[in-house]
Amino acid sequence: MPGRLFLCATPIGNLEDASPRLARTLREADVIYAEDTRRTAKLLAALGVTGELRSYFVGNERRRTADIAADLAAGRDVALVTDAGSPAVSDPGASAVEAARRVQAEVVVVPGPSAVVAAVMGSGMVDGRFVFEGFLERRGRDRSRQLERIATGDAPTVLFLSPHRAAADAEALAEACGEDRRVCVARELWWGTLGELVDKWRQDPPRGELTLVVAEAEEPEPDLERALEIARRLVSAGEPASAAAREAAEATGVPR
Q1: pTM: predicted TM-score of the whole model, two decimal places
Q2: Residue 181: helix, strand or coil by DSSP?
Q3: Residue 199 CB neighbours (<10 A)
Q4: In this predicted model, what pLDDT tens digit does every residue of 85-102 receive, in sequence order?
Q5: E strand or H helix at 133
């Protein structure tokens, strides 16, 4: 029988967030794959876990995925963790799940801390839908399209920011969305506008990865004057008044 793959969420800043189930899972796993073995070693020491620890990060993900598949096929239980939060959420993990499915191994999620959910909860800016974009693309057309989606989106957007690119990403967001767009930096729960955030980070660059919540685009105020102008033009061109009112309302958002 193949082993089991455990996707384990780890604390995002406070070791007390580690659950008894997480500690038990890590103790019982035959091997633990971690994004940063040095950071995970500290977590394991705090939980009293002494197990086999291997690296699994973007640079060696392909090779390690083959190792994970071999471990699972041999009947070993594998635990997968990232530096903080939940695996496979803008972090390595999806390939491990695919490998487990290929060898018909059971996949078990050990839920826990999530930077995305913590940001949504603490920001007070989300009431229903939100969009998770992960990290901003570094350059090119993909980055431009992503910024355009955020700028015009009708729901708040949650982003991850790396410390060495956070200031530049904030400037790009301010340019795309406007400096008055509301934001919340979720790590320290700082609220303000993108313009204020750019100024803040110019003076005091951020340290460590951050989660940012960007407010949705505001609906423009209906333009009554433009609606009347459209309706008058259509009536002058021979449109019935009711049809002209309907078309003007659809074009401007003004009630018919």
Answers
A1: 0.79
A2: coil
A3: 15
A4: 999 998 889 999 999 999
A5: strand 131-135
